[in-house]
Amino acid sequence: MSVTIKRKNDYIYAFIKGEIDHHTAPEIRETIDEALSVSETAKLLVLDFSEVSFMDSSGVGLVMGRYRYATTLGKKIRVDNLDNRNYKIMQMSGIEKIAEINRKEN
Amino acid sequence: MKKINQMKMILDSYSVNEGFSRVAVSAFASQLDMTVDELGDIKTIVSEAVTNCIVHAYKEKIGKIYITCTVFENGILRVSVRDRGCGIPDVKKAREPLYTSVGGDRSGLGFSVMESFSDKLSVRSKVGVGTTVTMEKRISGKKYE
Predict the structure, then answer these.
(1) What pLDDT does residue B144 have?
(2) Fold topology of A2-103
């Protein structure tokens, strides 16, 4: 599991690689939250799931938690490149009502 | 239903075992010649059930998690995950989508995900004794893909 942070214009990109479960989520969370807290000018956090090989509901908790934290900093979030299974799990939370979530293009 | 094959394992409730448990169960279940999607469903279900043991049942301590995985004729897979932890006072409430007793970054979706990816899910729990979650899934297999 790893997270790569990239910044471009007003965006922070977090590329998550590997498996997201209750065991791996804390480290992913810390890396992303640190990037959020130091990027004063950034307006949008993009969580890129294209290299996520597995996630359970801990992945949803991770996204919801980042949404809450980003909101307190006046930033928005978006989730990109979810595969069909992960998209389905994300949808169960209703997160798409408050943040944009996008499926991987085939 | 006639049993064809069975596997049992006992794990300590360390979070590092979440990954191992879902891989071990899916490896055993792969004798059913599952599709990639079915394999993903099994991994997700096991991950949720084992995480519940770690986060809820054995909140303040390390305990044993008992997993039994049975293959029946007609391609039915049954996985049961049992703990001797604190038990769930209100199973109906625990199964409600988005309900969580712990807060933080827990989504409250564990049971919803397990229900969605299995054909049958039962939860038996007694406060102070423990919880058993049993799920069944009919594997259609690659021949129907």
Answers:
(1) 55
(2) Transcription Regulator spoIIAA (3.30.750)
